[in-house]
Amino acid sequence: MTKNVRVRFAPSPTGPLHIGGVRTALFNYLFAKKHGGQFILRIEDTDQNRYVEGAENYIINALNWCGIPLDEGPNKNEKFGPYRQSERKNLYKQYAEKLIANGNAYYAFDTAEALDFHRKDHEAKGKTFIYNWHNRLKLSNSLALSAEEVKAKIEAGHDYVIRFKSPQDETLHLKDIIRGDIKIDTNILDDKVLFKSDGMPTYHLANIVDDHLMEISHVIRGEEWLPSLALHYQLYQALGWEAPQFAHLPLILKPTGKGKLSKRDGDKLGFPVFPLEWTDPKTNDVSRGYKEDGYFADAVVNFLAFLGWNPGTEQEIFNLEQLIEAFDLKRVNKAGARFDPDKIKWFNHHYMQQQNNAIIAEQYKPIVDNAINSNIDVNYIEMVVGLVKERATFVSDLWDLSHFFFKAPENYDEKASKKAFKEDTKTILTTVAEIINNTNDFTVENLQKTVKGWITSNEIGFGKVMMPLRLALVGALQGPDVFDIIYLIGKNETISRINTAIKSI
């Protein structure tokens, strides 16, 4: 890199941060850290009508939960602040006027009614109305009016916008790190509004000015901004500034692979599309979040990294440090990336196995305590977790896998009972209970050696003993090793459960 790497993530605070936005933030973060650069958060709130209370805090909390915190942003290292566009609005007018002065922009006084008339007139003729070189001299703007007429309209308080003057009969040669060389015919471009009649800049102007003033070196953003690339390049040229390098990330597609992933897809198919739970301040509707659904942040980040990027190897499991080391924008795909709800569960299952048992036990303890209305020692829960988590994807899965460690079975699986409980089962279980009761060295190894030794010496089939024993302890033919269960629930509880089973046969 020839200059300091500074990237920005610039969401609008119009609601919760979509998982696609998190992916954009992640790729910016990985690129910045790979090159020893800075990751900046800028809140693009020029559209105050769509502003939603709490959305900015949600965005920051979501980034922090994912482990990709900002280096600069609102209330943090404000070297180039402020970082909310609404607090920077005094900056933009001068640049709009500079563009007018150098002939790259103009005042437009067209009313909403007049523009609507032109659109409908074009539609009636099977055409599309585009405000640009082919008709701007016929409309109400400073290119078509005299200087005196323009001055009079402004002094009289007429509403106006400032539009960019897109060139005619030129070919733009643009570069994108992901998509390569792009050619654009300027004749198809419209004269975008840069400054609105309410005194606020549009996204296009504010974004360019802020990126320049904040010394952004690379703009890494979603594919939906690709149509704006030509205008943004031209604005840099018109203002005499060096443009940053651009990279447009592929869309995140629905699980079917057709169309952009939306909140409705998550609601319909039963998975979150937001990192954290969100309560709409207007309707109180609650949208699910990956955190509250039991996903590990590391799993979500690992999954998102593979939506549109691949390391060029077979490796799929990456911690954040490994992602930073491996990440390269040149290995980001152009084609859209299909969102696979099952794949993110696969990642979560892996991270469940890697997670420290003590941490899982702390998360699982409230579930256990609530289920049996008791305060269970977290160290005991930790031992249980170590035995059953292999089959779990979420902490919430653990109760079905381990409830028998905390309370005796209330009934026995009917199908398993027919299979395990035979005429001589009472006698067998009575003997097993005696053996366990008489075992002084109460360890898993010794219990296993003693009981299996008795089975072998008496030439009894292992199934005739172990199936009814498991059923007595668990209530079903499931769970980890029987002797691990016996050891954890203890001698007295084991004998009690065996005796209860004997009475029910």
Automatic annotation (TrEMBL):
One Pfam entry for this protein is: Anticodon_2
**One cellular component term from this protein's GO annotations in UniProt:** cytosol
Keywords attached to this Swiss-Prot or TrEMBL record, sorted alphabetically, are:
Aminoacyl-tRNA synthetase, ATP-binding, Cytoplasm, Ligase, Nucleotide-binding, Protein biosynthesis
A GO biological process of this protein is:
glutamyl-tRNA aminoacylation
Fetch the Gene3D superfamilies from UniProt. Answer: 1.10.10.350, HUPs
What are the Aminoacyl-tRNA synthetase class I anticodon-binding domain coordinates in residue numbering? 361-502
| Presence of keyword Oxidoreductase | no
Name the domain of life.
Bacteria
Q: Name one GO molecular function term.
A: ATP binding
Keyword Nucleotide-binding recorded: yes
Q: Which residues form the Glutamyl/glutaminyl-tRNA synthetase class Ib catalytic domain?
A: 4-346
Motif 'HIGH' region in this chain? 11-21
Q: Which family does it belong to?
A: Belongs to the class-I aminoacyl-tRNA synthetase family. Glutamate--tRNA ligase type 1 subfamily.
Q: Where is this motif: 'KMSKS' region?
A: 260-264
Annotated ATP binding sites: K263
Provide the protein name: Glutamate--tRNA ligase
Localization recorded for this chain is: Cytoplasm
